[in-house]
Amino acid sequence: MKLDVQLRKRQGQFNLSSNFNISGERIGLFGPSGSGKSTLSQLIAGLISPDEGTICLNDQYLFCSKRKINLAAEKRRIAVVFQQAHLFPHLSVEDNLLFGAKRIAKADRKINFNDLVKVLDISHLLKRSVTKLSGGERQRVGLGRALLASPKLLIFDEPLSALDQKLKDQVIPYLRKTLRRFSIPYLYISHSLHEVRLLTDQVIHFTGNGKIQEVTDAEKLARRRMADTQSSGYMNHLTLENPREVGSLLAYQWGSNEMLLTDHQHPQSGLFEVSSKDILLFKNHPRAISARNLLKATVNELIPKGGNVGIRLDCNGEELIAQTVREAAIELNIEVGTCVFLAIKASSFRRVA
Amino acid sequence: MPVLTPTDLQALWLSVKVAGVATFLTLPPAFLVAWALEFSKVRGRALFDGLVNLPLVLPPVVIGYLLLLLFSRQGIIGKLLSQLNIQIVFTWKAAVVACIVLSLPLVVRSIRLGMVQIDPQLLAAARCLGATRLDALFSIILPLCIPALATGATLAFARSLGEFGATIILAGNIPGVTQTIPLAIYDYTNSPGGEQGALTLCLISIGLSYLMLLFSEVVLSRFRRNDSR
User: Fold this and answer.
1) 3-state secondary structure of A235
2) Which of A76, A140, B64, B92 is the most exposed place for a label (fewest CB within 10 A)?
3) Does residue A278 share a domain with residue A143?
4) Residue B131, exposed/middle/buried by CB under 10 A (0-12, 13-18, 19+)?
5) What is the C-alpha separation between A141 and B3, in angstroms, rounded?
6) What's the ipTM?
């Protein structure tokens, strides 16, 4: 998917001017609330029109003020998943799902209904009225409805921000699974670094005043966040596999290492996060500690951030970032190439997908 | 025990017929007018709005007289219709025309109340899923307006049952042809010894109105139940 946007839009006191050119399949729009992300999504979807400029998707003009082109929203084939699911209250779940699919040519339907319903785990809800769905179910139906329209571009406009943390954690795995299974290019708008990291490859970073700061990726943004002492540190994402029970804990494989976790709810492979602040470093092997995971690692890189130091570690080929205050790094005499021991409590892991 | 005369029965039947046909014919144009006023960007909306609402504030007799001018043989519409051999004035159809004009603003108002409650984001979602404005009008707006339409229909039916001023001018007061219940009551009160007859028709009016309220309540509650299936 190729998206070329050069536009200006004035809305009351707010002046949005966007110039970017990006190609990719999984793109994030990241920035604080009020930075014009949602306005931009409405402009691309055709729900509002720019004052001037061009919007080009896959080399086709959606809007061009000079050539007087303004393709109607219903002709752009850009589906939007909104903050609220905005399901049609008079239709059943099934009729909601098929709303967009019925309005495109058969040849354009790329997504199999039964497959999608299975992946989203909503097959038991099809005959139900949408007024009888939970928040998480509503968002899954909203996602399914948008996907079944087989859009050229799918826009997520803060799709999870109306859900509480527990529901977010439930919906994210569905999003990841579904978006990987059905390859539809998408633009994911969010102010949550966590979501953007889990769901996108490239990120357009907005600053507070509607200006685009840079085109980067979520990983870089996450590392930069380490300097912020208020934040919960850098979140390491670990793909853990093949769980087996060890006493009251679960042992997962992490590359050639083994990790012990307390997570007993769904003993299955998945993506877990652990904060850089929850990793303890030792210069020498500690004889006895309460933390259940003790690994030997080599320091690959030191990333000074304000009063903190991020320490990129290599644990038998797997990467992990720990962080300490600068004084601790000096005291432990940590340099690139030194060997350290790291300890992580079994309860510090959180499943994210 | 009050007894219904054949004229009373005719008046009852005529009232129901006129009110029913008028209600049925008012709903589609009222829906389109409400949509135009609420969703479209037509120029001169305020003027159009005023025109539609005029019958609500004008005396019905004035409306009746204006309609008489339009529909008489020399009137703009009357001339056209007489070429097609259609006679409106002083027939029951004239009563229907009067009722449509007078109930249109009421129905438009109630449908608009229903329309403003529709989340505009639903329409945005429909457009992004490929629905044109016309498509969304029938696939989203119309079904969501059913309760408002039911309320509007109740109002139109009630307004039509009670119509007097415009009807008597445009349709006249001909027993068995254009005499509805209000006109029959008027006749009774003007003739000596007519008190009994007037009272009987009053009771019938009450019964009819009550039935109609019941009907609208049933429709609304069924819709609510469907909504929370």
Assistant:
1) strand
2) B92
3) no
4) buried
5) 62
6) 0.81
Query: Please, are residues B21 and B98 in contact by the beta-carbon 8 Å criterion?
Result: no
Indicate if A255 and A196 belong to the same structural domain. Answer: no
- % chain B with pLDDT above 90: 73
Question: What is the C-alpha end-to-end distance of chain A, expressed in Å?
Answer: 26
Residue A40 and residue A158 share a domain: yes
Domain of A54, CATH number, reads: 3.40.50.300
| Coil/strand/helix, residue A120 | helix
DSSP secondary structure code for residue A341 in this structure = E
Residues A286-324 have pLDDT tens digits of 888 888 899 999 999 988 877 888 899 999 999 999 988
Nearest-angstrom CA–CA distance, A183 and B66? 65
Are A128 and A176 in a shared domain?
yes
- The dihedral formed by the CA atoms of B20, B25, B31 and B36, expressed in degrees to the nearest 10: -150
Q: Is residue A230 part of a domain?
A: no
**A126 and A272, same domain (yes or no):** no
Q: Which residue of A94, A102, A103, A147 to mutate against B (max B Cβ within 10 Å)?
A: A103
Q: What is the mean pLDDT of chain B?
A: 91
Strands A2-11, A14-23: parallel, antiparallel or unpaired by DSSP?
antiparallel
Give yes or no for a contact between A80 and B125, defined as CB atoms under 8 angstroms apart.
yes
Phi/psi region, residue B211 (left: phi>0; alpha: psi -120 to 50; beta: rest), is alpha
Residue A110 domain-assigned? yes
Nearest CA in chain A to B143: A90
Residues counted in chain B: 229
CA A8, CA A17: separation in Å to the nearest integer?
4
Distance from CA of B202 to the nearest CA of A (A): 41
Bridge partner residues of A312 (DSSP): A301, A321
Mutate to test the interface with B, among A87, A99, A138 (most CBs of B within 10 A): A99
The answer for residues whose C-beta is within 8 angstroms of residue B85's C-beta and 6 or more apart is none
- In this structure, of A21-25, A156-160, A163-167, the range with the lowest mean pLDDT score is A163-167
* Domains of chain B, first to last: 6-117+147-227 (1.10.3720.10)
Q: Determine the structural domain holding residue A303 and report its residue range.
A: 235-351
- Asked if A197 and A103 sit in the same domain, the reply is yes
Report how many Cβ contacts below 8 Å link chain A to chain B.
73
Query: Which CATH number characterizes residue A334's domain?
Result: 2.40.50.100
Instruction: Give the neighbor-by-neighbor strand order of the sheet with A52-57.
Output: A14-23, A2-11, A52-57, A60-64, A69-70
Domain count, chain A: 2
Contact A261, A349 (CB under 8 A): yes
- Please give the Cα distance from B14 to A199 (Å, whole number): 68
Contact A258, A315 (CB under 8 A): no
Closest chain B CA to residue A45: B128
Given A216, A249, A269, which residue is the final one in a domain? A216
